[in-house]
Amino acid sequence: MLGVRLDTELEERLAAVARTQGRSKSDIAREAVRRYVDLHDEAYRREARRQSTRASKRDTPEDFAFWNALARESDAQGDEV
């Protein structure tokens, strides 16, 4: 459950749209929040993919050798990764 405070003007505009569409203000607000979250969640995922791809292009054979050696050393010592 979420309560949202709107200024008077926005509340009146929302009420007018709701009446025009035959919907409740809650339905419209729910749809607006869902669209906002979908848009920004997708933008976040796109940025994470972009950064991951960019980082993977910076990997060098030396990087892989370092991490593999570290893993072998950890395994030999019985450390958990």
Describe the structure.
With 81 residues, the chain is mostly helical. It has a domain at 29-81. It has three helices and no strands.
Spell out the key features of this protein.
single chain, 81 residues, mainly alpha, 3 helices, 0% strand, rod-shaped
Order of helices and strands: HHH
Mean pLDDT: 85
Q: How many β-strands, per DSSP? A: 0
Report on the biggest sheet.
none
Coarse structural class = mainly alpha
Shape annotation: rod-shaped
Stretches with pLDDT under 50, minimum 5 residues: none
Give a topology summary.
Elements: H1 8-21, H2 25-58, H3 61-77
Short structural description:
Helices cover 80% and strands 0% of the residues.
